[in-house]
Amino acid sequence: MNVQVIMRDGAPEYAVLPWAEYQALLDATGRTPDHPAIQPGQASLAQLTQLRQEQGLSLEQLARTVGISPAYLELIERGERDPDSAIRRVLARTLGVSGWGEAS
Questions:
Q1: Which of 76, 82, 96, 101 has its CA 20 to 30 A from that of 25?
Q2: Rounded to two decimals, what is the model's pTM?
Q3: What gap in Å lies between CA 81 and CA 72, rounded to an integer?
Q4: Under DSSP, is residue 36 helix (H, G, I), strand (E, B) or coil?
């Protein structure tokens, strides 16, 4: 198994493994993911919160990286605001997805 261990303060905090190996572990235990699978490079803005959380980013961290306020990012995540294409592109680049340059 190809696992990357991420340490914090000298102790293991996260284990990162390839998606196929994660799926194999789920299959071996008879479990399914609690959420629909997001394929690398493909996602919609409706999955923004999930993507952010899966990457271990707080709302504040992602907002700071994108250059917007946490309050505005929260509105985007809740679907109450539709960001312009520049914000979509920065979100996509930061989260590693494609296809967010245009309004949906």
A1: 96
A2: 0.57
A3: 8
A4: coil
